[in-house]
Amino acid sequence: MINRVLKLQKKIKDNNYYLITNPVNFSYLLNLNYNLQEKEAYLLISKNEAYLITPLMLINYYKNLCNKNKIKLKTITNKFKLFEFLKDKSNEGQTKIIIDKLSITLTEFQILKKYLTNKLKIGTDPTENLRQIKDETEIDNIEKAQKLTAKILAKSIRFLKNNWHKNISEDDLACYIAETAAKYNCPKLSFDPVVASGINSTNPHHRPEQKIIKSGVLLIDLGVNYNGYCSDLTRTFFIGEPDSEFKTIYDIVLKTLSACRNKAKTAKNLYDLHTEAVKLFSKHNLSQYFIHSIGHGVGRQIHELPFADKKDKNNLTENTVFTLEPAVYLKNKFGIRIEDIIIKTKILKEIRSYPKNLNDIIIKL
């Protein structure tokens, strides 16, 4: 088993301690096959030491994890014992306690500041950058999650066709997706599924409602959580016979996805792929209808590094996993989004999941 705490320690070059309070980063560093939902324990890590700080009621559980990861176990009976411990560690030489600006609340900061005064510093949790580079086990979990998602999507389309006479609503189909995921031992979804029919497909994050699904456009975006790792898959279907406008725009979105995927083989950052998509849509006067970024990293969380940030010049490093999701949303008409997961290895790899050619997404009743 990879000791991720040790990997993180090797990346720390200063003499400070980093207080890991983000439950997802905590779960990642300890190799848990699920993500904690709240702060039940903390990690305090420097380049030479690592402590797991936990209340007494969790000591038996975390004792074994500490032994496996060669971490010192520190039990606390109340929050004041935590403050005392942090203060003691910060008093060792020219040392500060670094807390992550993204996972600390204002109240927590004010309390810690009261006890640590000038020994407290707002910074960035170095675990975020470590998480971006996936190991073989992580990639395997994401691949399995994505392939399960494709199976769930296929079953959901069959369910819709077989029950068409029952006037299935967006809510009905979203519930079926969740129920089917649970049957595949994925009771936790990456996010609430998007089931958007007709004009609702123009809203990228539409929330399913009691609208009956009828002939026309149907956009479905779904993902599951498998062993703590997320999937993300979007397909835009057409129920019945699509008109020429849908066919034309679908072809443009599909070709944009293909072009961005090919460019990803040599691209240094995700923003370059975003600008490529904008450029291609501009040729068809459609760039104003592409209203979100080309994609995002995916792993323990559905949105994580890398992002399409023009300030980040080199974020498509080897073993980075990210989505590509070009889209066109025509106001008062329909939206088309096609999304896949890409793995940036020495040979670029697309996770083969649900087919996406025009004939594959036409639902004939």
Question: Could you explain how this protein is built, in words?
Answer:
The chain has helices at residues 4-11, 23-29, 59-69, 79-90, 106-116, 127-132, 136-162, 170-183, 244-263, 270-282, 358-361; strands at 17-20, 42-45, 50-55, 72-76, 97-100, 120-123, 194-197, 216-222, 225-226, 229-230, 233-239, 296-297, 304-307, 320-324, 327-330, 334-337, 340-344, 349-350, 362-363. The chain is elongated and about 70 Å long. It has two domains: 4-131, Creatine Amidinohydrolase, Chain A, domain 1 (3-Layer(aba) Sandwich); 136-363, Creatine Amidinohydrolase. It has 365 residues and is of the alpha+beta class. A six-stranded mixed sheet has the order 4-3-2-1-5-6, with helices on both faces. The protein has a four-stranded mixed sheet with strand order 7-8-11-19. It has a three-stranded antiparallel sheet with strand order 14-17-18, with helices on one face. The protein is 36% helix and 21% strand. The relative contact order is 0.11.
Shape: elongated
Q: Roughly what is the average pLDDT, rounded to an integer?
A: 95
Number of domains: 2
Task: Encode the helix/strand succession as letters.
Answer: HEHEEHEHEHEHHHEEEEEHHEEEEEEEHE
Percent of residues in beta strands: 15-25%
* Uncertain regions spanning at least 5 consecutive residues: none
CATH architecture descriptor name of the largest domain: Alpha-Beta Complex
Q: Give the N-terminus to C-terminus distance in angstroms.
A: 50 Å
Computed structural class: alpha+beta
Please provide the count of β strands.
19
CATH superfamily of the largest domain: Creatinase/methionine aminopeptidase superfamily
Rg (CA only): 23 Å
Assembly of the depicted chains: single chain
Q: Briefly, what CATH class of the largest domain?
A: Alpha Beta
Helix content class: 25-40%
How does the major sheet shape up? 6 strands, mixed
Helices, by number, come to 11
Physical arrangement of strands within the biggest beta sheet: 4-3-2-1-5-6
Assign the CATH topology of the largest domain. Answer: Creatine Amidinohydrolase
